[in-house]
Specification:
alpha+beta; nine-stranded antiparallel β-sheet; 14 helices; 22 strands; elongated
Length: about 625
């Protein structure tokens, strides 16, 4: 066998081949080409604006390589040039109240920070961060491609217009053909002008294909009570056909003539407004909290899908973004006139919202101008409300005192006409006695009913009032959420895993109020008639049931509301004691009733005549049945 010898030529060839491979691999590493790198500029309205860049873009996304140009041309068609020349990077718009970070990829807002506010755990309050939102326009091209702007790269230009900051994001076909997102921010305003327009794309965009705008957001949790924030105050609001409404979680609707949509998260909201209403828009809300122990990052998912219309083959929409607080004082200001965005503050419907807008907010704002302690403001506001309502308390107590005076006569009447067969006669005589004495059963009910709108209006007012958010008073560190004096090692159904003191105080106060009010209610009721339920026994149960129910319900509710009910019940007790001991004289009431009895009876109204006639007919029928 022949031995193999060392081949010098082969050795040299291998070395040269290895060198060529090493050189080729080295040349394939991405290089930073300064001529193709797009820098971004951070503009701050609180500082002097200049033309220097404050952020440097990383490496370009695509290398200006002929093979990759061909691949991009095959993939993107006319929009390949934008991908070839574009780079990763962001542009920043920032003023005194909000900071927006706009990504080159998709030309969309990557981060939205609401300044001057913190989350419940003292972190910066972001509405958009870590890809929780997406803004995309889906369209077809004349070369039969379907593109999504969220996957394409825009080229940014940062300019100013006076004090306004402008970021123009262009998805280019050429220098004169592009799709532009234009953002314009004014100083000290949450509202940002936003326009979507195309230029020279009438022969690029396929008008026979639908052009769809898709905007979605997973709402971050911001507040202490996840359950309260998510289930009670996080909703998808919209204005369509000149009416403001909202959909609940798990719902989806198709709407026309949509002026704006609002992704509301208790105290903060993300809105998109359009000068040209959306038609055939699909809105969807999805609950992301399936388990409160695990799902603690997001509350709900909001989605808007709507077609966009071309005008002369081009897109031209003027819109507005709003990232800010859902503050009634702000949204009802002149800046937002005609938008109806103040209705997202959720002050209640009908008379409840009317009371909050015309009475309670003006009173609260007036007191806020003199005091900085919001706990004292709530106490003073409670005093004002109770003093305004005190005539109704007096009216109710006066009716109770009158019923107490005539009660012996009503008891004697029950004895005179016993049995079910005399029920109609007994009722007629009872009404006659009350009428002659100038007493009406409704006179005691009406004052209580008139107070109910106030109760429900304040039930909305305190938990949605932004001014109370993260304001402390005594042991409560956030008047917009529950107070905690003890953390339980377990969770009690319907109660929670903590103990709140303000609901306990409110429950004790309502117990004593109801205990004191029991005698008044007993006087208001006529003696129990045969065959009728004994309402006094039911009232005894309610004395204990109502405070317990209130304790469980308010343990996870805003401490400001519990504080109000605590002070309100204490003041009501005090007012009732003053009326009982210093205002009402039962002897004078008795004399007045006797005087009323001597007066000739007034002519019956037509309504009373019909009632008396109906009762007489019923009594006759009852008598006929008895004879049979």
């Amino acid at each position: 066998m022949e031995q193999k010898k060392f081949d010098l030529n082969s050795f040299i060839g291998l070395i040269l081949l290895g060198g060529i491979i090493f050189w080729w691999m080295s040349t394939q590493k991405p290089e930073i080409d300064e001529t193709n790198t797009v820098t971004t500029e951070q503009v701050d309205s609180t500082k002097t604006i200049n033309n220097t860049s404050t952020a440097v873009v990383n490496e370009p996304t695509f290398e200006n390589d002929s093979i990759k140009q061909i691949a991009l041309k095959n993939k993107l068609g006319a929009f390949a040039q934008s991908a070839i020349s574009a780079s990763n990077g962001v542009s920043i718009l920032e003023n005194e109240v909000v900071k927006l970070t706009i990504d080159n990829k998709g030309g969309q807002i990557k981060e939205a920070l609401i300044k001057n506010y913190k989350t419940y755990d003292s972190l910066p309050l972001y509405m958009i961060k870590d890809n929780n939102a997406s803004f995309n326009i889906n369209f077809g091209t004349t070369d039969n491609r379907i593109l999504n702007t969220k996957n394409l790269f825009f080229q940014p230009t940062v300019t100013t217009n006076g004090d306004n900051q402008i970021v123009s994001m262009k998805l280019k076909v050429s220098e004169t053909q592009f799709l532009e997102y234009r953002y314009e921010m004014k100083p000290k305003e949450y509202m940002v002008n936003f326009s979507v327009r195309s230029q020279g794309l009438s022969n690029v965009i396929n008008s026979s294909n639908p052009i769809n705008l898709d905007w979605s957001l997973n709402g971050y949790r911001h507040e202490k009570s996840l359950k309260t924030e998510n289930t009670m105050y996080t909703n998808f609001y919209y204005k369509a056909d000149e009416e403001v409404d909202y959909i609940s979680a798990g719902s989806s609707e198709i709407l026309n003539d949509v002026d704006w949509v609002a992704y509301k998260q208790h105290f903060f909201t993300t809105n998109l407004l359009s000068d040209k209403p959306f038609n055939n828009a699909t809105i969807t809300s999805t609950d992301l909290v399936l388990n409160e122990e695990i799902d603690t990052v997001y509350t709900k998912r909001f989605e808007l899908k709507t077609p966009l219309e071309l005008s002369n083959g081009e897109l031209n929409y003027n819109m507005k973004w709003f990232y800010g607080p859902s503050d009634y004082n702000l949204l009802s200001s002149e800046q937002f006139a005609g938008t109806d965005l103040d209705q997202t503050a959720d002050l209640g419907w009908g008379i409840f919202g009317f009371l909050n807008r015309t009475v309670f907010y003006p009173v609260f704002n007036f007191l806020k101008g003199f005091l900085s302690n919001y706990g004292l403001i709530i106490i003073l506001m409670t005093i004002v409300v109770r003093l305004i309502m005190s005539p109704l308390v007096y009216k109710s107590y006066l009716s109770s005192a009158k019923m107490k005076v005539i009660r012996p006569e009503l008891t004697a009447l029950n004895e005179k006409y016993p049995g079910k067969e005399n029920a109609m006669k007994r009722q007629q005589e009872t009404m006659a006695i009350q009428r002659k004495a100038g007493v009406s059963m409704m006179s005691g009910c009406i004052p209580a009913l008139l107070q109910m709108p106030v109760f429900f209006a304040l039930f909305k007012f305190f938990p949605t009032n932004l001014s109370l958010r993260q304001e402390n008073f005594l042991w409560a560190n956030d008047l917009s959420s529950y107070d905690t004096i003890a953390q339980l090692p377990f969770k009690i159904p319907f109660y929670g895993d903590h103990v709140s003191l303000f609901p306990i105080l409110a429950s004790v106060a309502i117990f004593f109020y109801m205990k004191m009010n029991q005698s008044q209610q007993a006087n208001m009721q006529a003696p129990t008639q045969e065959g009728m339920p004994d309402m006094s026994k039911m009232m005894k149960y309610m004395i204990y049931f109502s405070p317990i129910m209130m304790l469980f319900f308010f343990n996870n509710y805003a401490s400001s509301l519990s504080l109000y009910y605590f002070i309100s019940n204490l003041l009501t007790i005090a007012i009732m004691l003053v009326i009982k001991n210093f205002v009402i004289d039962e002897d004078k009431i008795h004399a007045k009733i006797e005087e009323n009895k001597k007066r000739p009876e007034k002519k019956k109204s037509k309504f009373r005549e019909r009632i008396d006639s109906a009762m007489k007919q019923a009594q006759e029928q009852q008598a006929q049945q008895k004879r049979k």
